[in-house]
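Report of the visiting student (M.T.), summer placement. My assignment was to run the structure pipeline on a short list of targets and document each run. The first record concerns Dihydroorotate dehydrogenase (quinone).
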Amino acid sequence: MYSLIRKILFRRNPEDVHYWAMAQLQKAYRNSLSRSMMRRMFSVKDRSLERELWGIKFPNPVGLAAGFDKDARWINELSCLGFGFVEIGTVTPLAQPGNDKPRLFRLTADQALINRMGFNNEGAAAAAARLAKPHERIIVGGNIGKNKVTPNEEALSDYEKAFRSLYDVVDYFVVNVSSPNTPGLRALQDKEPLSRILNRLKQIDAELGKKRPILLKIAPDLTDSQLDDIISLVDETKIEGIVATNTTISREGLQSAPSIAGETGGLSGKPLRERATEVVRYLHTKSNGTIKIIAAGGIFTAADAQEKLDAGASLVQVYTGFIYEGPAIASNICKGIRLS
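After the run finished, the structure tokens were exported:
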């Protein structure tokens, strides 16, 4: 059924389809009958799926990655689709429009996306205000970044502002220094600037006293030496884990026409699956399993998710797979994991 709907939707601009589809989901949520039907269709409750990390009990290990609900607009609606958690953002201290359109591209031959959104969002205060209102009970992560106009030398201030704004309304944080779509951002993955950011956020967390887990989202394009630095940095700063991985700047092995495959931005989806798994396995092995990992990259099916879990991940996230597989992706993965 969804394959037919997808053919129709894929004829339209992907960013326009995104907002149209979520508007339809909002309408369905407002109706008590359709809301109840969605919950029955997409929620998989099984104790074998439950995971507990950082004192947080996840009903299942399948989450929605940051980038889909940047401004915490659709927490209620997404909670009906069977996700174990939803990560909002990337949220910056100040609102910003992001990069010029078009900035989102489908590579259907590769089951992939290229995006150069550029952290388009309404700002941390707007997201915090939405999350402060009563909403469905679901674990929410806050993915935070710096504003485009903020020089790297002042990035620490931006991460601190976003962290403080969301502190009371999210369950965990993800520090995003790995998007390829904000000029110079990936330079913050270097050990020295990253250490300053993470140590400061840990200090603020200790002061505020709620012990929010802090994770670092890394690029799949890091070398083994850089990954070794990340491992030592996690140990030194005592952050709670890593999200592996963000989108890639690589275009190796793509089947799509160069006119679309050559678009600038971060590539996500099936082509990223193998490399993302390699990074998860490397981090898990080299750290002797001491680092908690949320895996993302090319997860479409239960087999894809199980691959990441077997490599050492504790939780997984989907994004591009959600676009291609449809609203049943979380439930289908959960059913497959439960039966494996």
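The two ends are 25 Å apart (CA to CA). The first helix runs from residue 2 to 9. I thank the supervising group for their guidance throughout the placement.
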